[in-house]
Amino acid sequence: MPAKRRLDLPAIECALRDVQQRFTELSRYFTEPRDPFTDEVLQNVLDGYALIDDYVAQGVDLFDLQQVDLMLEINATVLCGRDPAARAESKEHLAATEKHFFNNTEGGIKDLFNWYSAHRTESVWKRAAGVYVRILSRPQLFLEGNNRTGSLIVSYLLMCAGHPPFVLSLANAEGYFNPSSVIRNSAKHGVKALYELPKIKKKYAAFLEEQSPNPTEFFLRDKQPPIYQGSQK
User: Fold this and answer.
1) Residues of the chain with pLDDT under 70
2) In this structure, is residue 24 part of a structural domain?
3) Domain containing 113: what range?
4) DSSP string covering 21-57, please?
């Protein structure tokens, strides 16, 4: 995998802060209630962007069987950040998530890996949307944090293809949260899923492509990573 441009993490933080400041107002247009967009949640998401930035720079292939477990680190980061104390407090939950991730035959990593292997030749927009649908639909890939983790994995895929990451903004918040609610209430398997999920994937792929920022937004001008200290908890 060739060297990729590094993320402008302060610019991503600025976009997320804009959403945070107007989250109550934005929430009026969401079809389902959403958890508050706290400073802790925002910081953990930023830590997640820093993590996938490193993954892309290092040439990590999250859909290689030898590296799929690194998705668990993305999930742990959005839930706990990089703070060792927070990780220690969530030790049992993270262990349960790992067991669910590997052993859930209907919605675990095997399901996601098999889907991705069968769709590798699709456009990055369709692959990213399909991955998001497989992560978020029932049963979900992780016990908690599927929206945030799924969006970071979507961003990872887009970045690997040379596109900017998906970043929540004032312009795309409604278009992100409302379809996500539909996906969360959809089952992965069954007769209904055979015709419902492809339609959802198609619509979400179009959303990702349409709202994608200009090619340089959220990237630094050179390939050097920004000065970023992560969580200060």
Assistant:
1) 1-4, 222-233
2) yes
3) 9-211
4) HTHHHHHTT-SS------HHHHHHHHHHHHHHHHHHH
Q: How many domains does the chain have?
A: 1
> Tokens 């990872």, residue?
156
Considering the domain boundaries, does residue 229 fall inside one? Answer: no
For residue 197, the one-letter residue type is L
Question: Is the Cα dihedral 27, 150, 116, 107 positive or negative?
Answer: negative
Chain segment 25-61, per-residue pLDDT in tens: 999 999 999 999 999 999 999 999 999 999 999 999 9
d(CA 103, CA 99): 6
How many Cβ atoms are within 10 Å of 30's Cβ, its own excluded? 16
* Residue 230, domain member (yes or no): no
Task: Establish how many alpha carbons lie within 13 A of residue 127's alpha carbon, considering only the half-sphere containing its beta carbon.
Answer: 20
Tell if the pTM clears 0.90, that is, is over it. yes
Domain annotation covers residue 38: yes
Query: Cβ–Cβ contacts within 10 Å for residue 110, how many?
Result: 16
Kindly report the length of the chain: 233
Q: How far is CA 64 from CA 56, 108, 130, in A?
A: 14, 15, 17
Tokens of 32: 């389902």
**Residue 120 DSSP label:** T
Domain CATH for 76: 1.10.3290
